[in-house]
Design brief:
Length: about 120
């Protein structure tokens, strides 16, 4: 099998509800957010051996994100995205991650407002 350098896991359009915003109505009402995550990690051993212990378990990452978002209260989109990015990069194998979160209907006449943060890991 040829050398595999990096796996890229994408979690697309994870739709959750949380408290996000600093206006009084935003502090009292759950709002929709749409989360997109990209996680890079070296997957050569998993690709060669087919051993689940050598693969990053994206289901565990996703469950941790769901719990944090749904149980949280956030004033700023930056804080929410930063928290999700920290969870996404929590595994020692992760070399890079990017998180974009959309807040639908945050602005009149716009489908959504989104914010992206990225992190390179050693």
């Amino acid at each position: 099998m040829p050398s595999v350098s990096n796996a890229i896991i994408r979690i697309k359009n994870l739709r959750l509800r949380t408290y996000i915003g600093f206006n009084p109505e935003e502090r009292e009402k759950l709002q929709d957010v749409v989360i997109n995550i990209e996680i890079h990690y070296p997957a050569e051993k998993a690709a060669i051996t087919d051993d689940v212990e050598k693969a990053l378990n994206y289901k565990v990452v996703c469950k941790d994100i769901i719990q944090h978002v749904e149980e949280g209260h956030f004033l700023l989109l930056e804080k929410l995205v930063g928290d999700v990015l920290e969870i996404a990069t929590g595994h020692p194998w992760v070399t890079f991650a990017s998180v974009t979160i959309d807040k639908p209907h945050a602005l009149r006449f716009a489908d959504s407002v989104s914010l992206t943060l990225e992190k390179y890991c050693d």
